[in-house]
Design brief:
It contains one helix and five strands; from the N terminus they run H-E-E-E-E-E. It is α+β, with helices and mostly antiparallel strands. It has two domains: about 40 residues; about 70 residues, Copper binding periplasmic protein CusF (OB fold (Dihydrolipoamide Acetyltransferase, E2P), Beta Barrel), CATH 2.40.50.320. Strands 3-2-1-4-5 form a five-stranded antiparallel β-sheet, with no helix packed on it. The chain starts with 6 loop residues before the first helix and ends with a strand.
């Protein structure tokens, strides 16, 4: 008699464990993130193209894809920034990856990086 688990049993166990490891990494700071660090789910990162940089208003106009967690379709939006110093680091035409959130009833870009 064979005392090893069947391939089906091993596959079922693997499929049950893999999704849990992702939840743990996001909720506990695991996966190389320092404890207390906010982990942004990948689904909240949006791709976009900078269309206007406005130093006067502290806004960045971004043509972007749908931002589903905010209920926004693909469009061009002028966003205020959590960190206005970013305005000096981007130019019209730059491809970016950004996180937008609703804070105190207004949309705000809380994180932005040049796309690679």
């Amino acid at each position: 008699m064979n005392h090893y688990p069947s391939r089906a049993a091993v596959l079922a166990l693997a499929l049950a464990v893999v999704p849990l490891s992702g939840v743990w990494a996001q909720s506990s700071g695991g996966g190389g993130n320092p404890p207390g660090t906010k982990v942004v789910p990948a689904k909240h990162v949006t791709d976009g193209t900078v269309r206007k940089v406005s130093l006067e208003t502290g806004r960045l106009t971004i043509q972007h894809g749908a931002i589903r967690h905010l209920g926004l379709p693909a469009m061009t939006t002028a966003f205020p920034l959590a960190d206005p110093s970013v305005l000096d680091k981007v130019q019209v035409g730059d491809k970016v990856k950004f996180v937008a959130e609703r804070q105190s009833g207004r949309l705000l870009v809380t994180d932005i990086k040049l796309a690679k």
